[in-house]
Amino acid sequence: MPGVADLIRKLHKNKYVLAIASSSERAVVGNLLRHVGVFDYFEHIISAEDVKRGKPNPGIFLAASKRMGLKPRECVVIEDASIGMKAAKKAGMTSIIIPNAHTYNENFDRADLIVKSAKELNRMDWTRICKIL
Fold it and tell me: Could you read off the pLDDT of 81-104 as tens digits, one per residue?
């Protein structure tokens, strides 16, 4: 997704705790993060192997917040699919949606914020976003 690596770098630079909560296998996630050059920016990787039930069950996001030492309401989930948004909302977390070519027609009515691209999200003031959301 264009702009995601820059967004990750910006968030890391600004001292946000970053975690990946993916329904994919840990090896696949790790390989992708290394390929994009952002593996070292994530303090935690939670994958399909770490939970019994996948999204829209909130377990993967709750596991991430626990590992980060944060309460669910302190977490912001960036997702590209409605199934992930539903899991985030069930977990009591804020959800920001960046639809992709396969999910742009999905129902995101429960999202807290919808943006068209990671580049758009990267241009936003995250201190302000976190206060509003």
Answer: 999 999 999 999 999 999 988 998
The side-by-side arrangement of strands in the sheet containing 76-79 is 76-79, 94-97, 113-114
List Cα–Cα distances, 19 to 61, 99, 107, in angstroms: 9, 20, 25
What's the token pair of residue 34?
Answer: 């290394």
Closest-CA residue to 64 (of 39, 38, 87, 98): 87
- Residue 86 domain boundaries: 4-132
Q: What is the pLDDT of residue 131?
A: 65
Kind plus residue range of the DSSP H or E element containing 76: strand 76-79
**Residues sharing a CB contact under 8 Å with residue 61, sequence separation 6 or more, in sequence order:** 21, 72, 75, 77, 87, 88, 91, 93
CATH code of the domain covering residue 100: 3.40.50.1000
pLDDT band at 133 (very low <50, low <70, confident <90, very high): low
Instruction: Please name the residue that has the structure tokens 């976003």.
Output: 129
Domain count, the chain: 1
Longest dimension (CA), the chain: 36
